[in-house]
Amino acid sequence: MFYILTCWVLLQVGDFAFPVFEIEQGYFHWILGLFAVLFPMVLTVSWFYDLTPAGFVRVSPFVERRTLENMTPRIDRRVSLSGESMSQIDTDGWFIYAETGPVEGLEYNISKGVIIGRAIECDITLLRSYISRNHAQLQLQGEHLTIEDLGSSNGTEVNGELIKGQHVLQNGDEIRFKDVSFTIREYVSTISSQAMLDQTAVIKHS
To answer: Residues 83, 89, 187, 173: what is their CA dihedral angle, to the nearest 10 degrees?
Structure first.
């Protein structure tokens, strides 16, 4: 846009100055053609660099920026090239598993507040036109996992019903944003399960 604006200003100045200094109009057309030829080059440079007060600054490509901003999946259950799925990691906590959509097959550990949306800055980015920039938020409140719609255009469904305000999630609940769906999973490791059994008092009737 800065280039186009600069060209327009120069052409306006040239249109006024050429007759005053008795410069042939043919040069005006040459300058117009030069601006047109340089435009693809300027467009290419602007894709990789930003013009700032400090000069040209290199910007990361879209995919790289998305990788940097998004949270790393704890488990990848997608089928590998060899046809074998990755083994399940034995761990504790709340997880959200993508059944369908752009991140299908990925499972994320919810250990903090997680925002789902279309924006690259979200923790989980879903590049769909019907997903709002900041669509929904998952939060841990004590031992409970909750979800809240952040005023999205198309709403958030839990088990087929649109939610309003904060909604407490249970193991196995389905979260859906139109055709993008997630499953909530709560895992308890073998060690934790054994510890709970050891603390359980068994009462025998005589």
So the answer is: -30
